[in-house]
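DM between two lab members

TW: hey, do you still have the ATP-dependent DNA helicase RecG entry open?
JB: yeah, one sec
JB: this one, 709 aa:
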Amino acid sequence: FNFRAFQQKQLAPGNTWIFSGKPKRLRDTWTFFNPDVLVQSDLGGILPIYRKEGSENSAQVGSRVRRVLKDGRDFLLGLLPQDLPAILQALDMPPLLEAVRDTHWPKTLEGAYRGREALKIAEMLLHMHTVHQQAPERTFALRPPLMLTPTLRDRILGALPFSLSPSQSRTWAGIEAQLRAPRAQDLLLLGGVGSGKSAIAYLAAFTQCLSGPAAMNRALLIAPTVILARQLYENLQGIASTLGVRTGLYGAQVYGSAENPEQTPQIWVGTHGLLNAVTDWDRIGLVVFDEEHRYGKDTKTLPSHVHRLLMTATPIPHTLAHQRFGALPIFRLENDHHQRNVHTEVLTRQNPQKALEQVHKTISHQRKALMVYAAVQEREQWVLPERVFFLHPAFPVNRGVMIDITQAFPEWKVGQPVDTHLLARQMLSYAESLQLHDEAGGIPFYRLNRTFSAKKLLSAESGQQNLFDRHLLLYDKDQPDRIFLVPEHALRSGPSRFVRTSVLLRACQNEAFASVPLWRGSQLIQGKSLEMALPFWEARYPDQVAVLHGKMSPVDKDRAVEAFRSGEKPLLIASNIVEVGMDIPGAETVLVADAERMGVASLAQLRGRVGRHGEPGYCFFLGPAQDPDAIERLQRIAKEHKEERLAVQDFLERGFGDGTGASQSGNTGRLFRLPRDAQRFLQVAALRKKLAAPKPPDATRHPQKMPAH
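TW: and the structure you got?
JB:
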């Protein structure tokens, strides 16, 4: 033992002391460096360890925490929503102050878990409350109401070249009522591919232009791509001419260039660049965002007097959070016209033969097929952690290597972003060199699933003797970005008794064990980029391939789309620019390479490119064979065809950001994480909604006289 002078004075002869710390090997000797010296009464207890804060050590931070809990009880209670006590009670969780105390100074491990769970619930509730407080901010501005007469309503509906479906009629009636309100409104229109969202957008725009005051009789339709903007504009033209409404396509025309006010377009269609060109916002009464999940929060920020209609099949997590926890009204469109028939299948990139055969069949039958790649060129950056557990695609299943980043790569710094192509080259090579010196082929890790058994694991390794505890590596599928370092003794509950898998899972989910980031080599390697894959398709289908991606000029994009639409080039190799706006008759098959890199919303939209207009369709998601978790996720998406359920799945996968809108997805919580805590999150949301619902009148407290007969 190496002690400081004050520790040597502290240790009086004849007393029993307990030492706590991490042993290290030094010249064939196990050594304690600066261990904590505890007294006999500490034995068997659970002591908190705090990270160093500035110049304060763990003990000083702990003292400050005690002071806050002692002197700041009312302050802590005032920080959190008022319905927290009722929700904690309903879930049989300890009250807030007890939870804080048990989290920091638990008497038992179970008490620590329950305290932490209660604080998770408090944090969840705080996020929901923040979203609820943020949601109404844009609805405060007064504005002149729309003067929509029955005659004008019938005239607008009569200009449509088709009759509204029952679902469209119900939805439009609800949206129209909101647009006639004397305050600005935020509305969410949820409808799958082919459900008729565009018709609702046109009706909203015409209603604003024809029934709004002369000083506010303009509307904007915002599309995520030039292709979709042109498509919306072309479909709008015939209806607009019937109603005598002037329209403009941003890009083909310059906003505000008309010298005669009588020639100024009343409805403008364009991409988000149109928003930056507007200089007369006082004239704009409505903005419609088509495929709202394709825009950032800042793009969707509008003046407080403007109605905002968000349309999508799969709203982004932040928008869904505002709908679920805030005051964002939602309107749903059902696909009344025809039942979509799209066969969706997940294949590995190593065995894509079935998809290739379907593409060949589609082209042979004079139909059309799309190949979608996540990247035009491979270019992405990851931020370096101190240490990472790395899964090499060529390693045996459930084995990896532990890599100390700064030791393995001295030229890199922790926190530094590094391009994935460089990471792939360096990390894969380094992992292979480590494996050469390891006959077993890497360090094993164990999945905490139904087949896991602590008894079988420790019995199989009972012949190995270790002076100090070994750390076993455990994996929880609900926390796919980390691996847990679990001391061997944590798997035992006695000399011949073993801990249940559910107990270990709970400990991991409460972060009772240390963990390191988990990186998968398959994520670095990826499938081929569009540019790398293009020669393969051109050789296989000469003179039949069109190419489409966001880096092309507008003219080249239009040529590619027209060649594909006409059938001159029946095979389109594209980036996910085709995710929205591609309504191509005869499009039968879509193959999505690197599907694991795409979000739920993008995959749902890409599947929607085929099987339209009642025709059959085929969709294939390709993923890495070496990553069973990625394949399982894609299979869940493939099986689900309800867009709103997919949006909820996306919400639970990615989180919903910080509640204020600065980030529209991601985990910003200190304690709760999605998808790990998804079920608890849904449970808390349901309880919050139930408690907020108006209570029915109590007949016993307000007796009413029976009417006389």
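TW: got it. The two ends are 96 Å apart (CA to CA). The first strand starts at residue 18 and ends at 20.
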